[in-house]
Design a protein that fits this description.
The chain has 126 residues and is an alpha+beta fold. The chain has one domain. The protein has four helices and five strands, in the order E-E-E-H-H-H-E-E-H. Strands 1, 2, 3, 4 and 5 form a five-stranded antiparallel beta sheet that branches. InterPro entries: DUF3037 (IPR021398). This is DUF3037 domain-containing protein.
Length: 126
Amino acid sequence: MNRLAYQYVVLRCVPRVDREEFLNVGVVVYCQAADYLQVAWQVADDRLRALHPALDVDQVRDALGFIEGVCAGDGRGGAAAGHPVGQRFGFLKAPKSTVIQPGPVHGGVTTDPAAQLQHLLGCLVG
């Protein structure tokens, strides 16, 4: 089996930046050797509204859809989607002051980046 190095960031929903409270909502996995960049996410409306009752959860889903577009390299990701895979991951892992923020970059090795993404989603978000 071919073990591949990968990097990932956990996506956090930060409804109010001033309070620094967040809820993990997704994971982005990047594996250069496999030319793999993908996001998996799930939004728990009730948990997010517990942090901030007035949060527009549809806006959160739209932001995550944008990230899907960047990963896929399609129109949903705007100009960032047109760059090479490594640059797109660089864009996604950069700190932001928006409602969706990436956590620190972590790494590991896997034989299957897609399976690893689902594993991380279950462990860190689900």
